[in-house]
Design a protein that fits this description.
The protein is of the alpha+beta class. The protein contains eight helices and twelve strands. The chain is 34% helix and 25% strand. Helix 3 links the parallel strand 3 and strand 4. Bound molecules: aspartic acid (ASP). The site of aspartic acid (ASP) has 18 residues, from strand 8.
Length: 306
C-alpha cells in the first residue's frame, strides 16, 4: 500500500528548555508547524516529494528564527553566504548552490539548478547570474539583516571562534525529507552556515552525499550540525550505504551514522530521514533538534528537546 511521510528540521544543538521563553518556544513550534503543513498539503494531494520538501524549506527560509534564507547567520566578513541542495531519489537528480547572496529562496535556486542546468553545483556570481536568468527573487541586503545574528557575529569574532547558530553550540540549518504517494523520495537542506565562518567556507549542506541525499532504493536524508564533520563522514550517503550494503533498517543506519560515527569523530548534530516504506528517523547527538514530522493517517508531531 502506498503511503506518504514528511519530516523537517530547523537545526540541532544546545537547545535547553531553561534558556527558552514560552513565547519563543511557541514561535519555533508555529514555525515548524507552518513549514510541515506546506509540505503536507502537497503530499496529501498526491503531489511529489520534491515539491513537498522544497515548499517546506521555503517556509523555513522566510522565518528569521532559522539559519537559512532570511535568518542566515553572518560570515566573518559581515555578509551572508548561503547554500542549499535538493535531491530526488527516483533518478538521483540533484541541484545545489553555495556562496550566494540576496537570493530569497536558495532552495528554489538549487531546484532550478537540478531542473534547468546540466550541472549539480553552482557557486557565487555564476549561481547568482543563473538565478537572475531564471527569474528567481532577490531581496535587498537588509532583508537578511538581524540584530541578534549581528551580535552573535561580534561575540564570535571576539572569542575568535566559528560558531554554530544561536548559542555557542546550536545549529539552525533547515531541511526536509519526504516520501510521496508515487513511491518517490526527496531531500532538501538550506543554511547560512556557521557564524564567523571564513568567507568562502562551504559546509555539508550543499554537498550531495554529505548534508543531503535521496535514493528510492534506500532513503532520503538531511543533516544538520558541524559541517566539517558531516563532510568527513559523508553522513547522508553513509545512511543509504548502511542500508544498501549492510542491510540495516533506517533507524539502525541513522543511529550508526550519528550516535556512533559522528560521536567518535567529535562531530555534533543530527539528521532526519525517511525510507521507501515511510518510516521516519530523527536522530541527534546534541541536546536538542528542532523537528517535526507527519505520516499518512497520523497527527503531526513537533519536538524541540531530547
Ligand atoms: N551544517 C551546517 C554547516 O556546517 C550548520 C548547521 O547545521 O547549522 O554549515
Amino acid at each position: 500500500m502506498r503511503t506518504y511521510s514528511l519530516a523537517i528540521h530547523g537545526g540541532a544543538g544546545t537547545i535547553r528548555k531553561a534558556e527558552m521563553t514560552p513565547d519563543l518556544e511557541q514561535a519555533y513550534q508555529i514555525g515548524l508547524e507552518t513549514a510541515l503543513l506546506a509540505g503536507h498539503t502537497i503530499l496529501e494531494k498526491q503531489g511529489t516529494a520534491l515539491d513537498a520538501v522544497e515548499a517546506a524549506v521555503r517556509v523555513l527560509e522566510d522565518n528569521p528564527l532559522f539559519n537559512a534564507g532570511r535568518g542566515s547567520v553572518y560570515a566573518t566578513n559581515g555578509r551572508h553566504e548561503m547554500e542549499a541542495s535538493i535531491m530526488c531519489g527516483q533518478q538521483l537528480d540533484a541541484g545545489a548552490v553555495a556562496m550566494i547572496q540576496r537570493v530569497r529562496h536558495p532552495i528554489s535556486l538549487a531546484r532550478t539548478v537540478l531542473k534547468a542546468s546540466p550541472h549539480v553545483l553552482l557557486v557565487g556570481a555564476g549561481a547568482e547570474t543563473f538565478a537572475r536568468e531564471h527569474g528567481l527573487r532577490f531581496e535587498a541586503a537588509n532583508w537578511f539583516d538581524d540584530p541578534k545574528r549581528w551580535a552573535q557575529l561580534q561575540e564570535a569574532r571576539q572569542a575568535q571562534r566559528v560558531q554554530l547558530d544561536h548559542a555557542a553550540r546550536k545549529m539552525g540549518t533547515v531541511g526536509a525529507v519526504a516520501l510521496d504517494l508515487h513511491g518517490n523520495l526527496a531531500a532538501a537542506t538550506s543554511t547560512g552556515g556557521m557564524t564567523n565562518k571564513m568567507s568562502g567556507r562551504i559546509g555539508d549542506s550543499p554537498l550531495i552525499g554529505s548534508g543531503t541525499y535521496a535514493n528510492n532504493a534506500t532513503c532520503a536524508v538531511s543533516c544538520t550540525g558541524i559541517g566539517e564533520f558531516m563532510i568527513r563522514g559523508v553522513s547522508a550517503y553513509d545512511v543509504s550505504c548502511l542500508m544498501a550494503y549492510r542491510g540495516l533498517d533506517l533507524a539502525a543506519a541513522c543511529h550508526e551514522v550519528i550516535q556512533v560515527k559522528q560521536t567518535d569523530l567529535g562531530g555534533e548534530g543530527g539528521l532526519i530521514a525517511v525510507d521507501a516504506k515511510g518510516e521516519v528517523a530523527l536522530v541527534f547527538n546534541s541536546e536538542g533538534m528542532y523537528r517535526a514530522w507527519i505520516q499518512q493517517g497520523y497527527s503531526p508531531e513537533v519536538w524541540i528537546y531530547a
